[in-house]
Amino acid sequence: MVTPAALDELAALLGPERARADADTLALYASDETPRACPPAAVLFPTSHDDVVGIVRLANAHGFALIPRGAGSGNVGGALPVPGSVVVSFECMQQILEFDPANRLVRVQPGVVTDEIDRLAATAGLMYAPDPGSGAYCRIGGNLDERRRAALREIWRHT
Question: For residue 2, what are the β-bridge partners?
Answer without folding.
Answer: none
